[in-house]
Fold each of these.
Amino acid sequence: MALSANAVLNRFANLSLTPSEYLAACLERISQVNPRLNALTAIDSERAVGAAAQATTRWKAGTPRGLLDGLPIGVKDLQDTKGLLTTHGSPRMRANIPQGDLPMVARLREAGAIILAKTNVPECGAGGNSRNPVWGATGNPFDANLTCGGSSGGSAAALAANLLPLCTGSDTGGSLRLPAALCGVVGFRPSVDVIAHPTRPLGWSGISVLGPMARTVDDLVLMLRVCQGADPDDPLSSEAASDRFATLPAASLKDLRIGFSEDFGGTPVDPSIRATFRARIARITPHVRDCREVDLRLGDMDRCFDILRAESFVSAFADPIKSDAAAFGPDIAANVELGLSMSLADRAWAHAEQTRILRRFNAVMRDYDVILLPTAPISPFPWTQGNITEVDGAHMGIYYRWLALTYRGSLTGGPSITLPCGRDPQGMPFGLQMLGPVRSDEALLATAKAVEMFFAADPETARPCPDMAGLAASDIDLRSIVTHPPILNGSDRSRLDPLGTAV
């Protein structure tokens, strides 16, 4: 089950493994491990078995359907999957069975991927801790009592625990990067034009993007090759070469110009995380062309993000909250309340400030190929704690302020990625974040691959793997916060409950 996605597909091609055999192994692994993590929610095993049998026939005939034929994957529970329960972790949608796929999901399915399961999220994707009143909480594969991050937390946990080889995610303020860092996998926030996002509440705002998550850069690129593409309902997406990520540009560490910042312009970071980050910088510095600290005070990034995020929540949730406020948790309500307190002048300032931030970032990037930062400011905390209220003695204010290391990067509009890079002093995964220039996705991925290979050569900085055999269940039932369980009925093809028990 620890095989990479590329390795699995290679074995399909040489007929040493069939999609049916691999799916059976995944389902067995899920039945053993998911009860301790609650990473996967609705699971469509019945249709998956049929799809795997068809893929097996195609591979034996030498006629695979596409790049991912027969590969089971997980889809974030904010993203529509035809015929498979999609709840958003919200009581209002606990019986929602979409009639069609999100375009990104449709592309994956067309390439032969088997949509096996949905991955857990915070309610409506709000926050950095994947727990909700429909499915409960997701534990971290390194310690089920700790958070896996969010909002793509179920995806990160499923990958780290080797339940699935690939998973989807989305990212506004770090929802792909933060959980990937806390679970020791790779999460990529692409530029806004790369993957069409036609369900974005504000189609002309690029603060929210869709993206892939995997255990390695190579696997992530494989998935990105399928996901990328335009859609007429997303005016910010653009058509590109049909296989723009098939061949990445050459990247060599010795030619690399690195800028680095411990705190992205002054956001609070735990001293142990700073020390771990400094150690990684010290290790790579002798092997690159240049590595210098960089000033990332690009503007009033926190207030700018507050307004841009709040306006999207007002657009998506203000009317539903008016009609049924009790159906939403406090984080959704807080975002809407914040947005409703703002004026048109606030909105105009935020969009102008984001433009200024972009131009200042462009000026910085003239001297560097990438910027390195920590991904998370702290080690994972107990999932029973909704969010972090204090970092290194600084009060966080609003519940997502502790995500500033990632959401400040979202404001630049450029691509960003987090790589697993050993462990922090608490023994949990440490994520190294990389920012690239605007529209430099291919170059950033190539550089990330080179950096990944460098750190992988040393056991101290290689991707850490959790001890699943020794992983104990959380001290508190991961389902203890469920107040509105999912509605599973005859028309729902999901055949497993959130912890993997047959129903």
Amino acid sequence: MGSPTTAPTTLSAAAAVDALTEARERTLALVASVSDEDLERVHSPLMSPLVWDLGHIAAFEDLWLGHRFGGQPLLHGELLDVYDAFETPRAGRGELPFLRTAGAREYLDEVRAQTLEAIATGDIGDGLLHELVIRHEHQHNETMLQTLQLARLSGYEPPLRQPGDAAVYATATGLELIEVPDGPCTIGASDDGFAYDNERPRHRTDVRGFLIGRSPIVNATYLNFVEGGGYERREWWSDEGWSWKEEYDITHPGGWTADHAAEWRLGTLEPLDPYRPVVHLSWFEADAFARAHGARLPTEIEWEKAATWDQETQSARPFPWGEDPPEPGVHGNLDLLGAGPAPVGGHPAGASPYGCLGMIGDVWEWTSSAFGGYPGFSAYPYREYSEVFFDHGYRVLRGGSWSTRIRISTPTFRNWDLPERRQIFAGLRIARDL
């Protein structure tokens, strides 16, 4: 096709099988202890029933690998509309005729058997669609974990990797700033390997010098904002943010609660760890916090430059710390799918070229940027992945969270959500002009 969004991947058939298998094991382990009733229930109007996610994962693989790549008839063509994420908003998915638990699990097995048979009898071409399907399942793991946190199911324990002890319990508050000098930098994914359409084309741009937080803002720092009247001081809020806060009586981050002793805790009654990054913030809250501290949110271009740009070599690193993909517990908190991140600053090996900590894998970080296409954007493989969300009020998030898979957590990956959303594992990093 010639578009930079169609660059071949390095995925072999054997690697595709391994990655598909591992992704499915993680998906099923995530819900292994959840009852059929809880899988099928709507836990929040912001989220799908968990069993809808299971059926959607199967339908996506059926469409892209079985049907469009393999040329096979759809296994459940009658359910194509039911599992169309763009045509079926989350708030209404509980009313759809989706497959119940046994049927969804059977569909997952059927479509995977078809995929593996096709790989065994042929080749995977450039591997692009197989990589797309693998990453799609990874992304739904994080979405399902958001649902599980909102559901607060009694006795639920994520069965997967938990955060280990941080190498360094740093004293970072999130208010310490690092200077990033002015000058050109390259933004976006390279032409090699897999990337989503909104990450390309890669382009050169100039960025004026700025200051950016050495780490994300931690709970203790945000608690000072809450207890210092952060949700009462009108001058710190945008007009739209204040209206949202007032309408929904927002007084603290999502998931926080106060017990009879007025000690802040998480919604699970777990004590609030002062050194962990604050999470479940809306863009409105992140923006208000930054304003209260004489700061602002970084643009996504500033964020990417701070994460990857090496001033000495005038080149971008694939990851903040170098060429190799990150390792959980060494370079960051990412890929845990457990109870949450380790304390901020606990992974100094994951520092960016400028010394910023936790830019990959602590929490998604809100930026000031509206979600849109880069100059020369070309939709691939379908408009509904990115283009239909451009210029509709969505804000860009960067970095990945502790529950984001390593395959997704690249410094060029662009997440997006509406400014009022708090179900996402999102926090903030502040910035200032020089």
Amino acid sequence: MPDTSTAAASAASGASVDLRGIHHVELWVGNAKQATYFYRKCFGFDQVAYLGPETGYHDRVSYCLRQGNIFVVVTSPLTHLNPMNIWLNCHGDGVRDIAFEVGDVDRSWQAAVARGATPLIEPHDVEASDGAIRRCSVRTYGDTVHSFIERGDYAGFMPGYALDETRGDNVGIHCIDHVVGNVEHKRMDDWCDFYEQVFDFSQFVSYDDKDICTDFTSLRSKVMASEDRAVKFPINEPAPGKKKSQIQEYIDFNMTAGVQHLALRTENILETIEQLRENGAEFLDVPDSYYDSVWDRVGDIDEDRDKVRDLKILVDRDDNGYLLQLFTRPLQDRPTFFVEIIQRCGSDSFGKGNFQALFEAIEREQQKRGNL
């Protein structure tokens, strides 16, 4: 549980986390070589750097993938003694680290811990022949962590990585729009308070169990965001229902709270989804009946309506514009981590009008697995 008892004292002193954005997201997986091939061939990432025995690290391998401004690290243990194996046994493939770039690691570390963050790895230098960075880590929900990375004038990805360039077939995604976490029942507010008090995030929007529900299950969600809205973290919790919520299904298979999905932004979702489907990406099914009423709710859009329907893309509108989005099925056998593709056309919301359709689509998949 986050400890925010010293938040007021820290805030009063003016200390704050010098947050500049998401540096990278690290996945821990059972077989990094195969996972890297999947993300390169299916999602179009370039493989740009490698860390492992050949670069002086004998207990693990990591591949750095890039597309646009998105950096994803895929890491596996190399020996049975590596404690990463325990994490993988409990959770399966998934997100371990949402790493932030900061201007001053030591100041950010002191501020975060003073405000109630649980420390994991103290500030230290990571050095190689081409330079150094400074890094530390704190815990967040479940077994997920936030690393703080101070790059200084370091030009590469991170020390210890060697250039290892293999091109993917770019599908047009270019930045992380948001990262969604699933937490236990009655813990959403605790973790929202954590991000407010430790990182100065504020609540951007919220949805309750009346907004997102079926006859059987429901959830609650709040979106926490940094002051400049560059980092947005929706946090979901299961709500009581007649049957097991899809959020609870995630927590059961993950054994605790964790990252449910990454939302990756594109400027042309029609081309992106078409290419991803050709590459073998599997998406949640959207019934044809969804399009019987969606245009009455959304109105005119610039994209071809017929193609939106044919590609089964969801559409929503708010006061500032509209958005288009679609969600993959889980990317591993456990029904846990998945990816969202999103295009924003003025809208800065999260597709409230689509939440019901998404919730029902995931529930249909859950029923197929026998976990409803």
Amino acid sequence: MLWKRVVSSTVLIPCFLWVVWIGDWPYKAITIGITILALIEFCQLTRAIGSSVGQVAIIFFFSLLFCSLAFENIAHHEHPELFLGSFVTFVLFGAFVAQILQDKADAGFLSVAVLVIGAVYIGWAFGYHVIQLRSLKGGRSFTYFLLIVIWVGDSAAYICGKWLGKHKIRPNISPGKTIEGTVIGLLFSTISGLGVWYFPYFLLPEYFSAKQAVSAALIIGITSQISDLSESIIKRCAGVKDSGTLIPGHGGALDRIDSMIFATPALYYYLRLILGLE
């Protein structure tokens, strides 16, 4: 299993770093593709626990919603509160249309929950913010910052948790996660954030100080750990270990983006609200 993880990472990581570097439509296309794959896996997981929403319907709905959000900058919208209101209305409308189309009334509420949660959890929290983060001033560097902090923190938590972990956080949700691994993961996340700030190759803006780098890395570390646990809850409810088998040794697409789902918007709004980036 370990060698599969190493081989997959050796191939995928350079490819994704290259896509982040070139940005523009290839970056958006890859993000949309990953989001759709994650939505398919999300749909499969929820069907395992009783949802009857069809894959074609859910992917079509989420694709429309995602594309409308991904290419619309709320910050520059003339009336952002109206845009957000239309977003919520669109989600609820689609959700209740799906409920009406259900053959069984008792599956309606679960189907509504699947549509709404999926729209916010994957389409908005991940897809929308991954594209918006890259579009910020200095977005390429900040995207690298996000990815490296997550990768280093996750790797440290996984390895140290295996070797040193004795106290489980929530064994009924994620049996492999330990307090020791989590703490060490947060430590390495913070260190890696400072390392990325110091290393000139990543070209972080001059106004991004060491203190801000440490704060941002700590925020990413905390939110990525919570994000990882959130996906574990879904998988445990469905009674599976991985969301899919797309990536050898790593599971599915949702397994690979799980740490980014909460961490990406956390970094994005930190940069927008604290540093005032646009």
